[in-house]
Amino acid sequence: MLVNFNEMLLNAKKEHYAVPHFNINNLEWTKYILEECQNLNIPVILGVSEGAAKYMGGFNTISGMVKGLMKDLNITIPVCLHVDHGQSFDTCKNAIDAGFTSVMIDASRHNLDKNIEITREVVAYAHERGVTVEAEVGHIGGTEDNITSTETNATLEDCEILYNATQIDSLAPALGSVHGFYKGEPNLDFETMHIINEKLPIPLVLHGGTGIPADKIEKAITNGISKININTDLQVAWSKKVREKLATDSEVYDPRKIIGSGEEAIKERIKEIVTLFKTKI
Ligand code: 13P
Protein backbone atom coordinates (compact mmCIF):
# COMPACT_ATOMS: atom_id res chain seq x y z
CA MET A 1 0.00 0.00 0.00
CA LEU A 2 1.09 3.54 -0.75
CA VAL A 3 1.48 5.40 2.56
CA ASN A 4 3.21 8.48 3.95
CA PHE A 5 6.37 7.88 5.98
CA ASN A 6 4.94 8.52 9.46
CA GLU A 7 3.94 4.95 10.22
CA MET A 8 7.30 3.65 9.02
CA LEU A 9 9.62 6.18 10.61
CA LEU A 10 7.99 6.73 14.00
CA ASN A 11 8.35 3.03 14.68
CA ALA A 12 11.89 3.01 13.31
CA LYS A 13 12.84 5.87 15.65
CA LYS A 14 11.32 4.04 18.64
CA GLU A 15 12.86 0.67 17.84
CA HIS A 16 16.25 1.83 16.50
CA TYR A 17 16.34 0.67 12.93
CA ALA A 18 16.34 2.58 9.64
CA VAL A 19 13.98 2.49 6.67
CA PRO A 20 15.77 2.67 3.31
CA HIS A 21 15.07 5.49 0.88
CA PHE A 22 16.18 4.31 -2.55
CA ASN A 23 16.20 6.83 -5.40
CA ILE A 24 14.49 5.59 -8.54
CA ASN A 25 15.62 6.32 -12.09
CA ASN A 26 13.30 4.37 -14.35
CA LEU A 27 10.72 1.60 -14.47
CA GLU A 28 13.24 -1.22 -14.04
CA TRP A 29 14.80 0.40 -10.97
CA THR A 30 11.37 0.81 -9.39
CA LYS A 31 10.36 -2.76 -10.22
CA TYR A 32 13.57 -4.29 -8.82
CA ILE A 33 13.30 -2.30 -5.59
CA LEU A 34 9.63 -3.13 -5.07
CA GLU A 35 10.19 -6.82 -5.81
CA GLU A 36 13.17 -7.15 -3.50
CA CYS A 37 11.59 -5.23 -0.61
CA GLN A 38 8.43 -7.32 -0.97
CA ASN A 39 10.62 -10.43 -0.97
CA LEU A 40 12.32 -9.24 2.22
CA ASN A 41 9.00 -8.02 3.70
CA ILE A 42 10.26 -4.56 4.63
CA PRO A 43 8.86 -1.04 4.14
CA VAL A 44 10.52 1.16 1.53
CA ILE A 45 10.65 4.81 0.53
CA LEU A 46 11.01 5.51 -3.19
CA GLY A 47 12.83 8.83 -3.63
CA VAL A 48 12.40 10.95 -6.75
CA SER A 49 14.67 13.93 -7.31
CA GLU A 50 13.58 16.79 -9.57
CA GLY A 51 16.11 15.62 -12.16
CA ALA A 52 14.78 12.06 -12.06
CA ALA A 53 11.19 13.32 -12.29
CA LYS A 54 12.06 15.31 -15.39
CA TYR A 55 13.92 12.33 -16.86
CA MET A 56 10.95 9.98 -16.38
CA GLY A 57 8.41 12.43 -17.79
CA GLY A 58 7.01 14.01 -14.62
CA PHE A 59 5.32 13.28 -11.32
CA ASN A 60 2.07 11.97 -12.87
CA THR A 61 3.97 9.41 -14.94
CA ILE A 62 5.90 8.23 -11.90
CA SER A 63 2.88 8.06 -9.64
CA GLY A 64 0.98 6.04 -12.27
CA MET A 65 3.98 3.77 -12.81
CA VAL A 66 4.45 3.05 -9.10
CA LYS A 67 0.75 2.42 -8.50
CA GLY A 68 0.58 0.19 -11.59
CA LEU A 69 3.61 -1.84 -10.58
CA MET A 70 2.27 -2.29 -7.06
CA LYS A 71 -1.00 -3.62 -8.41
CA ASP A 72 0.46 -5.86 -11.10
CA LEU A 73 3.20 -7.27 -8.87
CA ASN A 74 0.92 -7.67 -5.82
CA ILE A 75 3.08 -5.47 -3.64
CA THR A 76 1.64 -5.50 -0.12
CA ILE A 77 4.49 -3.95 1.90
CA PRO A 78 4.19 -0.27 2.94
CA VAL A 79 5.62 1.92 0.16
CA CYS A 80 6.11 5.67 0.43
CA LEU A 81 6.45 7.74 -2.75
CA HIS A 82 8.59 10.71 -1.81
CA VAL A 83 10.06 13.78 -3.52
CA ASP A 84 13.80 14.00 -2.83
CA HIS A 85 15.20 17.54 -2.48
CA GLY A 86 12.15 19.39 -3.82
CA GLN A 87 13.49 22.87 -4.47
CA SER A 88 10.25 24.85 -4.33
CA PHE A 89 6.65 24.91 -3.14
CA ASP A 90 5.51 24.34 -6.73
CA THR A 91 7.57 21.16 -7.10
CA CYS A 92 6.10 19.74 -3.89
CA LYS A 93 2.56 20.81 -4.80
CA ASN A 94 2.82 19.21 -8.26
CA ALA A 95 4.03 15.94 -6.75
CA ILE A 96 1.30 15.92 -4.09
CA ASP A 97 -1.36 16.67 -6.71
CA ALA A 98 0.01 13.74 -8.75
CA GLY A 99 -0.40 11.34 -5.81
CA PHE A 100 2.97 11.42 -4.01
CA THR A 101 2.53 10.54 -0.34
CA SER A 102 5.54 12.44 0.95
CA VAL A 103 7.81 15.34 0.02
CA MET A 104 11.15 16.77 1.01
CA ILE A 105 11.24 20.54 0.72
CA ASP A 106 14.90 21.47 0.50
CA ALA A 107 15.09 25.21 0.99
CA SER A 108 18.47 24.84 2.68
CA ARG A 109 20.23 27.05 0.13
CA HIS A 110 18.32 30.01 1.64
CA ASN A 111 18.88 31.58 5.04
CA LEU A 112 16.97 30.07 7.96
CA ASP A 113 14.07 32.57 7.83
CA LYS A 114 13.46 31.92 4.15
CA ASN A 115 13.90 28.16 4.65
CA ILE A 116 11.19 28.33 7.35
CA GLU A 117 8.87 30.44 5.19
CA ILE A 118 8.99 28.03 2.24
CA THR A 119 8.85 24.92 4.42
CA ARG A 120 5.77 26.23 6.28
CA GLU A 121 3.93 26.76 3.04
CA VAL A 122 4.69 23.20 1.95
CA VAL A 123 3.68 21.75 5.35
CA ALA A 124 0.31 23.55 5.23
CA TYR A 125 -0.47 22.18 1.77
CA ALA A 126 0.87 18.69 2.50
CA HIS A 127 -0.68 18.11 5.93
CA GLU A 128 -4.15 19.04 4.68
CA ARG A 129 -3.77 16.15 2.26
CA GLY A 130 -2.21 13.57 4.60
CA VAL A 131 1.24 13.97 3.04
CA THR A 132 4.39 13.98 5.19
CA VAL A 133 7.17 16.56 4.91
CA GLU A 134 10.96 16.31 5.37
CA ALA A 135 13.10 19.46 5.51
CA GLU A 136 16.84 20.17 5.57
CA VAL A 137 18.82 22.34 7.97
CA GLY A 138 22.42 23.26 7.20
CA HIS A 139 23.35 22.15 3.71
CA ILE A 140 24.32 18.63 2.59
CA GLY A 141 27.17 18.85 0.09
CA GLY A 142 28.52 16.62 -2.66
CA THR A 143 27.11 15.87 -6.10
CA GLU A 144 23.57 14.90 -6.95
CA ASP A 145 21.74 15.15 -10.29
CA ASN A 146 25.07 16.50 -11.58
CA ILE A 147 24.79 19.52 -9.28
CA THR A 148 27.70 19.97 -6.91
CA SER A 149 27.23 21.94 -3.70
CA THR A 150 29.21 22.84 -0.63
CA GLU A 151 28.33 21.63 2.80
CA THR A 152 27.36 23.64 5.89
CA ASN A 153 26.67 21.74 9.10
CA ALA A 154 23.38 22.15 11.00
CA THR A 155 23.21 23.48 14.56
CA LEU A 156 20.81 22.28 17.26
CA GLU A 157 19.44 25.79 17.61
CA ASP A 158 18.52 26.11 13.92
CA CYS A 159 16.94 22.64 13.92
CA GLU A 160 14.79 23.52 16.93
CA ILE A 161 13.76 26.88 15.48
CA LEU A 162 12.79 25.33 12.13
CA TYR A 163 10.93 22.42 13.72
CA ASN A 164 8.95 24.64 16.11
CA ALA A 165 8.04 27.07 13.33
CA THR A 166 7.02 24.49 10.73
CA GLN A 167 5.95 21.23 12.44
CA ILE A 168 7.68 19.12 9.78
CA ASP A 169 7.49 15.32 10.10
CA SER A 170 11.18 14.51 9.66
CA LEU A 171 14.42 16.43 9.49
CA ALA A 172 17.64 15.98 7.54
CA PRO A 173 20.29 17.89 9.50
CA ALA A 174 23.52 18.29 7.52
CA LEU A 175 26.13 16.70 9.80
CA GLY A 176 29.01 15.75 7.54
CA SER A 177 27.46 13.34 5.03
CA VAL A 178 27.68 14.17 1.33
CA HIS A 179 25.92 12.96 -1.81
CA GLY A 180 27.95 10.70 -4.09
CA PHE A 181 31.44 9.48 -3.24
CA TYR A 182 33.40 10.49 -0.14
CA LYS A 183 36.93 11.73 -0.32
CA GLY A 184 38.37 9.62 2.52
CA GLU A 185 36.40 8.58 5.63
CA PRO A 186 33.04 10.30 6.15
CA ASN A 187 33.27 12.61 9.14
CA LEU A 188 29.84 12.53 10.77
CA ASP A 189 29.03 14.69 13.81
CA PHE A 190 27.39 12.02 15.98
CA GLU A 191 27.38 14.23 19.06
CA THR A 192 25.15 16.87 17.46
CA MET A 193 23.07 14.11 15.86
CA HIS A 194 22.47 12.61 19.31
CA ILE A 195 21.45 15.94 20.84
CA ILE A 196 19.12 16.86 17.96
CA ASN A 197 17.49 13.46 18.28
CA GLU A 198 16.99 13.95 22.03
CA LYS A 199 15.45 17.38 21.60
CA LEU A 200 13.19 16.81 18.60
CA PRO A 201 10.29 14.33 18.65
CA ILE A 202 10.54 13.61 14.90
CA PRO A 203 12.67 11.04 13.03
CA LEU A 204 16.02 12.14 11.56
CA VAL A 205 17.22 11.45 8.03
CA LEU A 206 20.73 10.69 6.82
CA HIS A 207 21.43 11.70 3.22
CA GLY A 208 24.46 10.48 1.30
CA GLY A 209 24.20 6.87 2.50
CA THR A 210 26.58 5.58 -0.20
CA GLY A 211 30.08 4.88 1.07
CA ILE A 212 29.40 5.25 4.80
CA PRO A 213 31.08 2.28 6.52
CA ALA A 214 28.93 -0.22 8.43
CA ASP A 215 30.08 0.88 11.89
CA LYS A 216 29.13 4.50 11.17
CA ILE A 217 25.73 3.48 9.80
CA GLU A 218 25.13 1.54 13.02
CA LYS A 219 26.26 4.49 15.11
CA ALA A 220 23.99 6.85 13.14
CA ILE A 221 20.99 4.57 13.77
CA THR A 222 21.87 4.41 17.47
CA ASN A 223 21.97 8.21 17.52
CA GLY A 224 18.48 8.62 16.06
CA ILE A 225 18.68 8.20 12.28
CA SER A 226 15.50 6.48 11.06
CA LYS A 227 15.69 6.98 7.29
CA ILE A 228 18.84 6.56 5.19
CA ASN A 229 19.00 7.75 1.58
CA ILE A 230 20.83 5.61 -0.96
CA ASN A 231 21.30 6.50 -4.60
CA THR A 232 24.86 6.21 -5.97
CA ASP A 233 25.41 2.78 -4.40
CA LEU A 234 22.74 1.07 -6.54
CA GLN A 235 23.80 3.02 -9.63
CA VAL A 236 27.39 1.80 -9.25
CA ALA A 237 26.31 -1.82 -8.65
CA TRP A 238 24.02 -1.73 -11.71
CA SER A 239 26.42 -0.02 -14.10
CA LYS A 240 29.27 -2.39 -13.22
CA LYS A 241 27.17 -5.37 -14.32
CA VAL A 242 25.88 -3.65 -17.46
CA ARG A 243 29.43 -2.75 -18.45
CA GLU A 244 30.46 -6.38 -18.00
CA LYS A 245 27.50 -7.55 -20.08
CA LEU A 246 28.34 -5.23 -22.96
CA ALA A 247 32.03 -6.12 -22.79
CA THR A 248 31.41 -9.88 -22.84
CA ASP A 249 28.43 -10.08 -25.20
CA SER A 250 29.06 -8.14 -28.38
CA GLU A 251 25.86 -9.48 -29.98
CA VAL A 252 23.39 -8.17 -27.41
CA TYR A 253 21.08 -5.39 -28.56
CA ASP A 254 17.79 -6.05 -26.70
CA PRO A 255 17.47 -3.22 -24.15
CA ARG A 256 15.64 -5.56 -21.77
CA LYS A 257 18.69 -7.83 -21.68
CA ILE A 258 21.14 -4.95 -21.33
CA ILE A 259 19.24 -3.11 -18.59
CA GLY A 260 18.18 -6.39 -16.97
CA SER A 261 21.76 -7.58 -16.62
CA GLY A 262 22.04 -5.26 -13.60
CA GLU A 263 18.92 -6.58 -11.85
CA GLU A 264 20.58 -9.14 -9.58
CA ALA A 265 23.29 -6.67 -8.55
CA ILE A 266 20.68 -4.13 -7.43
CA LYS A 267 18.70 -6.75 -5.54
CA GLU A 268 21.83 -8.12 -3.87
CA ARG A 269 22.88 -4.65 -2.67
CA ILE A 270 19.39 -3.95 -1.33
CA LYS A 271 19.57 -7.14 0.72
CA GLU A 272 22.97 -6.19 2.16
CA ILE A 273 21.94 -2.61 2.87
CA VAL A 274 18.72 -3.38 4.70
CA THR A 275 20.42 -6.10 6.75
CA LEU A 276 22.78 -3.39 7.96
CA PHE A 277 19.87 -1.00 8.59
CA LYS A 278 17.98 -3.77 10.51
CA THR A 279 14.88 -2.70 8.61
CA LYS A 280 11.64 -4.39 9.62
CA ILE A 281 7.93 -3.94 9.07
P1 13P B 1 24.04 8.93 -2.24
O1 13P B 1 23.95 9.09 -3.72
O2 13P B 1 25.34 9.38 -1.69
O3 13P B 1 23.68 7.55 -1.80
O4 13P B 1 22.97 9.93 -1.59
C1 13P B 1 21.61 9.75 -1.86
C2 13P B 1 20.80 10.82 -1.22
O5 13P B 1 21.12 11.32 -0.18
C3 13P B 1 19.57 11.22 -1.90
O6 13P B 1 18.94 12.27 -1.27
What report would you give on this structure?
It is a single chain. The protein starts with 5 loop residues before the first helix and ends with a helix. α6 links the parallel β4 and β5. The relative contact order is 0.16. The chain is an alpha/beta fold and 281 residues long. The model has no long low-confidence stretch (mean pLDDT 97). The chain has 12 helices and 11 strands. It has a single domain, classed as Alpha-Beta Barrel (TIM Barrel), CATH 3.20.20. 1,3-dihydroxyacetonephosphate binds next to β3, β11 and α10.
From the N-terminal CA to the C-terminal CA, the straight-line distance is: 13 Å
- What is the general shape? globular
Return the structural class.
alpha/beta
User: Could you give a short account of the major beta sheet?
Assistant: 8 strands, parallel
CATH homology superfamily name: Aldolase class I
What small molecules does the structure contain?
Answer: 1,3-dihydroxyacetonephosphate
**What is the architecture at the second tier of CATH?**
Alpha-Beta Barrel
Arithmetic mean pLDDT: 97
Instruction: Determine and state the CATH class.
Output: Alpha Beta
Total domains: 1
